[in-house]
Amino acid sequence: MREPIDPTGIQWLRVSPKLVLLRLLREGLGTVLVMAIFAIPLLFQAIGWWPGFPIWLAWLLLLAAFAVRIWRLLLVPRQVRAIGFAERDDDLLIRRGLFFQRVLVVPYGRMQYVDVGVGPLERALGLATLKLHTASPGTNALIEGLPTEEAARLREQLSALGESKLAGL
């Protein structure tokens, strides 16, 4: 489906569906941590360290935090489907965002270097993250969830295109 801010005539390439699992694992670990933190008032109440704290408020905080974390977990598959990239003659387009959509255009001639990173969970799933570095520190040009072979191919291709476009300036 074409979004209102998408350029016309673009065929978006998608990231690996394994990114859903990676993000669910990360969010799940985050949920456990958040639930542990929000359970502290209940624990303190139970052992008598915080007798004046209203028990209903402790439960309300815990349930509210749980609801927010579940909402975040439910959004993960749709967020991953919203990520895409497209290689054009002079630039690379990166799109992301479900509620707050963003299409980033990175001209090949502005790329300083291309970085491919792999963490332990990514390595286990055969995924990598490609990051494009430009002179602008505000550029957040990264593509998360690429299969490692695709990330390596893109790194080499984008580096070569960046050098050739930079030489033409």
TrEMBL record:
Pfam families: bPH_2 (PF03703)
Transmembrane segments: 28-47, 53-71
Keywords tagged on the record: Membrane, Transmembrane, Transmembrane helix
InterPro entries xrefs: YdbS-like_PH
Keyword Membrane: yes
Domain YdbS-like PH: 81-158
Keyword S-adenosyl-L-methionine in annotation: no
This protein's name: Membrane protein YdbS with pleckstrin-like domain
